[in-house]
């Protein structure tokens, strides 16, 4: 499967095309819109999220609530477009109608994008670099999540650290509903309270915050991905999808960097053959060995850097005058770590859905369901 996204942050809409979905996947906008709403939420977001009410309008590939196997297209309107039509419509020749954005923000795409594409108004870079585009990727991931859920796979994304404050509540599947109910998508309510105070303080100081999110999936069959070639390894594919999200700077699988500090006996997960098949009592591997799912829960963590646009701006250079300047201030989030937990979950869901189709093929959901069930039975009996 593959997908393409298009659209500027302050343009009329985001457009997304998915190609290669099997037929007969039940799909309506009600499967996608709740995920778009989750991505918009979370304490610390800026005023843009008050303006937008993201919904996916499916315009191809679905009839009577089911995929047909044809490319699925959906569009997400930017409600803010009507406030930006003038700025987004430069004069012929590219001359901006209002002052161009030239004070490159450290940490954003402005400077390298301006030089690379030879653009003078750095707005031409930021419009596409913006994480507005992650609305498209969440919609794609929501389709992936629907496909996975039809195959018995469940996922969750939650915040484990924000602004240096750590959650100390261990994850349990029975607590998924609590993630959805909490303002920061964090299971540790005491830590959440302190995180909120820290967000308020950062906002007051004109500063921004990052954090760490964790996503988990359970019910995966053994053998998604492959050990035989570097670009087929599922850990690499997951890392690429997650690192491809704006502001994500690190990915860990299972114990991740902690594994490097421990001896092998405290990292690797002993194997037992029990009634339900091969099992482990620990999961340091995070569900992946040799670039393949091993039947245990998949555990992926991602580190998000603080938002690049600071209201107390950092020193920079104005690329129009080539003189020292304060970095441009655009309306911005103080933090978007809760949103990132949703985006990372959706990005990983898509990679998993793709790996399912790659292993099991199938033009229809019926074929896929049969083949996944038979793979589970085989792994139990192996
Ligand atoms: C959900 C989300 C919201 C974001 N909001 C902002 C924002 O309001 N202001 C900002 O400067 N960066 C924001 N970012 C981060 C930038 O998009 C990102 O830092 C930039 O595109 C440069 O890419 P890089 O950080 O991956 O190098 C956000 C990222 C995500 C995932
Ligand atoms: C629009 C979204 O996030 C935007 C991501 C973003 C950035 O630079 O990445 C900058 C901000 O844009 P604006 O200046 O229009 O408020 C965020 O609001 C969104 O998540 O839907």
TrEMBL record:
<dbReference type="GO" id="GO:0008652">
    <property type="term" value="P:amino acid biosynthetic process"/>
</dbReference>
<dbReference type="GO" id="GO:0010181">
    <property type="term" value="F:FMN binding"/>
</dbReference>
<keyword id="KW-0285">Flavoprotein</keyword>
<feature type="binding site">
    <location>
        <begin position="128"/>
        <end position="130"/>
    </location>
    <ligand>
        <name>FMN</name>
    </ligand>
</feature>
<keyword id="KW-0288">FMN</keyword>
<feature type="binding site">
    <location>
        <begin position="305"/>
        <end position="309"/>
    </location>
    <ligand>
        <name>FMN</name>
    </ligand>
</feature>
<dbReference type="GO" id="GO:0009073">
    <property type="term" value="P:aromatic amino acid family biosynthetic process"/>
</dbReference>
<dbReference type="GO" id="GO:0009423">
    <property type="term" value="P:chorismate biosynthetic process"/>
</dbReference>
<keyword id="KW-0456">Lyase</keyword>
<protein>
    <recommendedName>
        <fullName>Chorismate synthase</fullName>
        <ecNumber>4.2.3.5</ecNumber>
    </recommendedName>
</protein>
<comment type="subunit">
    <text>Homotetramer.</text>
</comment>
<feature type="binding site">
    <location>
        <position position="45"/>
    </location>
    <ligand>
        <name>NADP(+)</name>
    </ligand>
</feature>
<comment type="pathway">
    <text>Metabolic intermediate biosynthesis; chorismate biosynthesis; chorismate from D-erythrose 4-phosphate and phosphoenolpyruvate: step 7/7.</text>
</comment>
<dbReference type="InterPro" id="IPR020541">
    <property type="entry name" value="Chorismate_synthase_CS"/>
</dbReference>
<dbReference type="Pfam" id="PF01264">
    <property type="entry name" value="Chorismate_synt"/>
</dbReference>
<feature type="binding site">
    <location>
        <position position="39"/>
    </location>
    <ligand>
        <name>NADP(+)</name>
    </ligand>
</feature>
<feature type="binding site">
    <location>
        <position position="290"/>
    </location>
    <ligand>
        <name>FMN</name>
    </ligand>
</feature>
<comment type="function">
    <text>This reaction introduces a second double bond into the aromatic ring system.</text>
</comment>
<comment type="similarity">
    <text>Belongs to the chorismate synthase family.</text>
</comment>
<keyword id="KW-0057">Aromatic amino acid biosynthesis</keyword>
<dbReference type="GO" id="GO:0005829">
    <property type="term" value="C:cytosol"/>
</dbReference>
<dbReference type="InterPro" id="IPR000453">
    <property type="entry name" value="Chorismate_synth"/>
</dbReference>
<dbReference type="InterPro" id="IPR035904">
    <property type="entry name" value="Chorismate_synth_AroC_sf"/>
</dbReference>
<keyword id="KW-0274">FAD</keyword>
<feature type="binding site">
    <location>
        <position position="331"/>
    </location>
    <ligand>
        <name>FMN</name>
    </ligand>
</feature>
<keyword id="KW-0028">Amino-acid biosynthesis</keyword>
<dbReference type="GO" id="GO:0004107">
    <property type="term" value="F:chorismate synthase activity"/>
</dbReference>
<keyword id="KW-0521">NADP</keyword>
<feature type="binding site">
    <location>
        <begin position="246"/>
        <end position="247"/>
    </location>
    <ligand>
        <name>FMN</name>
    </ligand>
</feature>
């Amino acid at each position: 499967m593959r997908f393409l996204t298009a659209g500027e942050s302050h343009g009329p809409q985001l457009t997304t095309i998915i190609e290669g979905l099997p037929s007969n996947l039940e799909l309506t906008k009600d499967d996608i819109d709740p995920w778009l709403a989750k991505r918009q939420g979370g304490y610390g977001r800026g005023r843009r999220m008050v303006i937008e009410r993201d919904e996916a309008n499916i315009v191809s590939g679905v009839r009577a609530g089911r995929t047909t196997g044809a490319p699925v297209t959906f569009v997400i309107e930017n409600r803010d477009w009507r406030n930006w039509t003038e700025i987004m419509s430069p004069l012929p020749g590219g001359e901006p109608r209002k002052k161009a954005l030239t004070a490159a923000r450290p940490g954003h795409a402005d400077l390298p994008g301006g030089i690379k594409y030879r653009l003078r108004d750095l707005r031409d870079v930021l419009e596409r670099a913006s994480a507005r585009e992650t609305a498209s990727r969440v919609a794609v991931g929501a389709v992936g999540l629907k496909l996975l859920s039809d195959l018995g796979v469940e996922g969750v994304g939650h915040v484990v650290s924000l602004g240096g404050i750590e959650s100390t509540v261990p994850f349990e599947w029975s607590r998924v509903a609590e993630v959805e109910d909490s303002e920061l998508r964090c299971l540790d309510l005491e830590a959440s309270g302190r995180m909120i105070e820290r967000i308020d303080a950062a906002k007051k100081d004109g500063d921004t915050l990052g954090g760490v999110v964790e996503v988990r999936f359970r019910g995966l069959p053994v053998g998604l991905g492959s050990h035989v070639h570097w670009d087929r390894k599922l850990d690499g594919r997951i890392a690429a999808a997650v690192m491809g999200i704006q502001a994500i700077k690190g990915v860990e699988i299972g114990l991740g960097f902690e594994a490097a500090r421990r001896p092998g006996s405290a990292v690797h997960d002993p194997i037992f053959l029990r009634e339900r098949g091969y099992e482990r009592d620990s999961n340091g591997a995070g569900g992946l060995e040799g670039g393949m799912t091993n039947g245990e829960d998949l555990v992926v963590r991602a580190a998000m850097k603080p938002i690049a646009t600071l209201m107390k701006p950092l020193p920079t250079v104005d690329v129009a005058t080539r003189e020292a300047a304060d970095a441009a201030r655009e309306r911005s989030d103080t933090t978007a770590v809760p949103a990132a937990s949703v985006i990372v979950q959706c990005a990983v869901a898509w990679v998993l859905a793709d790996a399912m189709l790659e292993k099991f093929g199938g033009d229809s959901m019926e074929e896929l369901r049969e083949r996944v069930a038979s793979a589970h039975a085989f792994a139990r009996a192996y």
